[in-house]
Write a structure and sequence with these properties.
By secondary structure, the protein is mainly α. Helix content is about 65%, strand content about 0%. The protein has six helices and no strands.
Length: about 130
Amino acid sequence: MERTLQKFYDLLPESLRSVAARYDQPLDSATADYMHDELKAYRNQAAAESIKSGCIDIELVDRMVAALNRLLTDFNRFDDAEKMVVSAAVRYFLDSEDAQLDFSDRFGFDDDLAVLNAALLAIGKEDMIVVRN
């Protein structure tokens, strides 16, 4: 278990490690199912903020939400360490006041993107990597 979690942290920029570590407690299955609704609500909040400020890349947010939803759909197939990594990525994304404020500027979701992609690499889901266009 330590190996997957350590790989996740090693892939993160040092400035994000302690923030991401706050979220690595594994979700239970019921909470993982509920998180789909949380992601939808947060995506809608980002869309509303995007209309107000014009600085949020909502297409990037949509791709990230799609990847996180896919991970949550497969949540019960992951081992314990992978569940911890997926849990950290989802919870980190849903925290608008993580290492970088999500709605602050065009790059507000870049830290969330780094955490998501580190999680995907750590659990062997390279084919799901999300890139900024």
